Structure formats: structure tokens, C-alpha cells
Amino acid sequence: MAGVLAHACGGGGGATKTATPAPTPTRPAAADNGHTSYPLTVTDMLGRSVTFTSAPNVVAALSPTTVEYVFATGARSRTRSTDTTFPDLASFAVDVGPVTQPNLDLVAAQKPQLIVADATLQSGLRGKLEALGVNVLFLGAPTYRDAIAQLTLLESVLDKSVDSENAVGNLRSTLGTTQASLPAAQPKVLFLYGTPADFVAAKPASYAGSMLELVQGRNVIGEQPDAAAMPGFAKLTLAEIIAAKPDVIVAASTKANGAPTISSAITADSAWADVPAVKNKRVVEVDPVVSVQVPGPRGWIAMQALAAALYPQVFDQQ
Description:
The protein has helices spanning 2-5, 64-72, 104-109, 126-130, 144-157, 165-180, 207-214, 238-244, 262-267, 276-279, 288-293, 299-310, and strands spanning 40-43, 49-52, 59-61, 79-80, 94-95, 114-118, 135-139, 188-195, 198-202, 218-219, 233-234, 248-253, 283-285. By secondary structure, it is of the alpha/beta class.
């Protein structure tokens, strides 16, 4: 399981922690000219109230998801975690180490006016980050709609509403156009993440599970216990999968160095032959990065791929 866990939930640091549930932030009021009015108080994903007297100009983001949020607004992050690979401009930011153990001295050395931490992976750093004496926001994307809300919140904090219009617009418009085109049929779906030898299935409470619900896929996973250190995912036996009879299997494989994908392995395995998705050639690979590992601004890409996997007769699969 270690190989699966190391890449999930927005970073490659291995440990996973769940953020304390908090009300989904709403967009603060803007001035008539479209710019943010200060002072501004917002509530982050840990339920913390944070007040800004002006727009922060120097920002330090600490995980792949939060770095993407910052760049998506049109701002730049002075920092990144070691495993941050997107966008390309992030490569010029200071590498502050693993997402679960950032070097806080390096973070402080950038003299940030705002630190954007990961609510899922870095909630345990709350005390140390607050001790730096800088405004800290804990953001994340537990669900697709949360990604929209979090990006909207950050754009208001940074006074970047106009700059990030395309990023928020992509998430919203993709959701709207997809839902408007959904057929009546609601296929039973199994979403797998990992490798052929070690995979887990997305539960409704996961980011991938939230997208399944939005595109009206019937998740075959119910209230099974979470996989160890992997909230929102369950470990299933082949017997349980056969009994669930999924019409579609969506696989997000964490393959490396030419290793086989989940889809290629299960379609070649006779033990899976009676699963409807395998029998009817409805096993589809999707990008593990945007659909599981780094939830956030690129979620619209994941939603398009998921809709095409479930309804190829309606949606373009390119």
C-alpha cells in the first residue's frame, strides 16, 4: 500500500491527514469596481478566521495543490514543495522540502505576507506555521465544488478576481456543460487508484467520488472502512468487485518506468472476465494527477475525462 499512499491527496510525502470539516467558504464581497474591499475576513478549511488589511504581495504555498491555487489566480508563489511539478513557472520557486515536512526556516526566509498551507496534508503544522507571525490560510479540495470555492476565496484574498476568471470559469463551465448533457442512464462505476498489485477504490466522500456523483455515476462503493492512511478510499477484494458488477471501471494508475496499468492488467486477467465493465470493454484510464493526487484548479480536466469514460456516446474523449 505504501506506493499508493505516497502519491495521494496532493503530494508525495506519504502521510495523509484529514482536515477538520469546516463550512465551505463563500466569496467575500467585492467593491463595485470588482476589486476586493479591505479589511477582509475569511474562513479557511480548518474553520480559522483570518483577517487581511490589504492584498498580500508575497505568497508562500507549501503543497502541489496550494501552489496551483496561487498560480491559477494570476499570482506567484515564492515557494513550492519538492514534488510540485505544475505549473512550469513553479519550478523557479524555492524548494522548501517534502510536503509533509517543509523547511519552515526556508519559508520564513522568503518573508511572505501569506502562507497557503494544505488543509489535508499539513493541518498538523498549524501551530508551527502560526508561530511564524504571518497570515496562514489552510486550503484544499475535498470535493470538486470545494475546489471552486477555495479558488474563489483565494482570488478575493489576493485581489485577483479578474486575473483568475479563466481558472474559476473553467471549473464552473465544465461542470455546467457536462451536467446539461448527461443522458438518463446512470452506469454503476468503480474508480480504482494505484497499481495492479496494490489499488484502492474511491468512496463517495473522496474528490474522485464527488466528481462521480456530479456526473451521475452510481458509485459501487458504499460505506466500507477507509483504507489505512487513505481517507476516502477503500480496499476491496476481487470477490467484492465481482459482486458489485460495475458497468464501468475508471482506473487512475500510478505507473512508472513502463509498468503495466491497472486497466491493462485486469483486462488481461481471466479472473476479471465476468465483470461487466471488463466483458463490455468499459475499462478506462484517467490521469491520476488531476483526478486524485493534486485536486484543485485542473479539476475540469478530470471531470471531462470522467464524463467521457462514463458516456462515450455523448462526450468527446479527447
